Recover the amino acids of this structure.
């Protein structure tokens, strides 16, 4: 969860995960850096490219799902003069990108009937490029902005492990429940699914491994 002001590029809050509460989401929002600029495109770019924390948790082999929430037009016109410039940059970040926007619609379509100057036209243009979901910010239900977009994410057929496991210790969980339709291939240190998990399911692979400095440790790799 980031501000649309690029000043928040170095925020160091770990993302919300399944099981977190509304209270935790509100606390994360309140702790985030605030600013007066409405530059969602540039804020995302700054976080990924300049922020020291992004690389500690963002998996570069994972699909990227972005949900912009704004009651103004997108204003990263110096960094991205055209929406196509942002799209070109975004395509370089991941092979799979999914985008939703919860913004002001054109006054003729908006539930708010907001002045045209506040229409999130640039957000909408980028979202339409990725065949994403656009939600009126004055709608009572924003859930489709995340649910419908996340359903498009390519299914995972495998998960590469970070460490070489003690093979008989490997366990796979789907939404916290033991999942049995998989096998481990030691040649590439990867868990392969014989039955692909459904979209939106949190997959966790837990295992023991032996660190280089001796002793036994435990790791968890995830995908969603």
């Amino acid at each position: 969860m980031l501000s649309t002001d690029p000043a928040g590029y170095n925020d160091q809050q770990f993302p919300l995960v399944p099981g977190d509460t509304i209270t935790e989401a509100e606390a994360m929002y309140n702790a985030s850096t605030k600013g007066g600029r409405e530059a969602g495109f540039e804020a995302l770019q700054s976080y990924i490219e300049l922020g020291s924390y992004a690389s500690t948790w963002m998996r570069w082999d994972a699909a990227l799902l972005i949900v912009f929430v704004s009651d103004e037009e997108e204003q990263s016109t110096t960094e991205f003069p055209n929406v196509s410039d942002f799209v070109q940059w975004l395509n370089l970040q991941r092979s799979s990108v999914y985008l939703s926007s919860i913004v002001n619609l054109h006054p003729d379509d908006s539930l708010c009937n907001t002045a045209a100057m506040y229409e999130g036209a640039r957000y909408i243009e980028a979202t339409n490029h990725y065949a994403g979901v656009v939600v009126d910010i004055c709608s009572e239900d924003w859930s489709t902005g995340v649910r419908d977009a996340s359903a498009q994410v390519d299914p995972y057929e495998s998960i590469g492990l970070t460490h070489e496991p003690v093979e008989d210790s490997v366990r796979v969980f789907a939404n916290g429940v033991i999942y049995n339709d998989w096998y481990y291939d030691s040649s590439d240190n990867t868990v392969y699914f014989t039955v692909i998990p459904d979209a939106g399911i949190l997959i966790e692979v837990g295992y023991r491994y032996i660190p280089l400095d001796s002793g036994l440790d435990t790791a968890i790799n995830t995908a969603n």
Notes: The two ends are 17 Å apart (CA to CA).
